[in-house]
Design goal:
Elements lengths: L4 E3 L1 H8 L9 H14 L6 E5 L5 H8 L3 E6 L2 H8 L7 E5 L14 E7 L8 H11 E12 L2 H5 L5 E2 L6 E4 L6 H10 L3 E9 L2 H6 L10 E9 L1
Parallel strand pairs: 1-8, 2-3, 2-5, 3-4, 5-6
Antiparallel strand pairs: 6-10, 7-8, 9-10
């Protein structure tokens, strides 16, 4: 039995846009808690959500009083994001994160978050260098990514093409933990916290599907400063 067909990342996420928010995935449930913890208070701050997708972070942070800018290359994802209740509190920008520079001035944001994006970025250092550039002095950058160990467990962002029913997989790059750490350091970021989060009994109680990954590392999160 053949596996899913790998497709370009942008094409895959455009297809996924209509159903992305329907799944209450264990990874996303675990990740949102970590993002909020590492960002801390955001009220009154300028926040960049790099790779905002359907706006799951951006809309929530705007609701907490942040001046949020969400950037993504998927028209489908941005359309979903901008149609959500509360989306008027954020600004939405279409841009390919792998095409530097980002369309923002240096030091434009006190907080920069990029959630579950890094494994879709082939060249990590140029991207992270841009996140450092747009982060203000005294600000912080929060990065989350699917833990590399998850690939050994067979979890990946696969979905069905709504037109054909074919199982497809948006392109990703199998970076290791050391790749993320060294790329961040070479990009001029100072690592303040590095954490690896596994599926817990508490997570299983919230998201029963997490039971298959109980005790298994699901998430890698990094907090860094310029």
């Amino acid at each position: 039995m053949s596996g899913p067909r790998q497709v370009p990342t942008q094409y895959g996420y455009d297809l996924w846009a209509e159903t992305y928010d329907d799944a209450s995935g264990a990874l996303r449930a675990l990740e949102e808690v970590e993002v909020d913890r590492l960002l801390e208070e955001v009220a009154g701050l300028r926040v960049l959500d790099a790779g905002c997708g359907t706006g799951r972070h951006a809309v929530r942070l705007a609701g907490r009083g942040a001046a949020v800018t969400g950037v993504d290359f998927s028209e489908g994802m941005l359309a979903r994001a901008s149609a959500k209740p509360g989306a008027e509190g954020a600004r939405w920008v279409r841009h390919d994160l792998e095409q530097p520079p980002l369309p923002f001035e240096a030091g434009a944001f006190e907080r920069v978050v990029s959630g579950l994006v890094l494994d879709h970025i082939e060249r990590l250092e140029p991207f992270l260098r841009e996140l450092r550039r747009v982060c203000a002095v005294g600000g912080r950058v929060v990065l989350t990514v699917v833990h590399p160990a998850v690939l050994l467990k067979g979890l990946s962002s696969r979905l069905k093409d709504p037109a054909t029913g074919e199982l497809i997989l948006p392109a990703y790059y199998p970076h290791q933990v050391s790749d993320y750490v060294m790329a961040a350091m070479r990009a001029g970021l100072r690592l303040e916290e590095l954490c690896e989060r596994a599926a817990t009994e508490e997570l299983v109680a919230r998201v029963p599907g997490a039971a298959a990954y109980l005790g298994w590392p699901l998430l890698l999160a990094i907090q860094a400063t310029p």
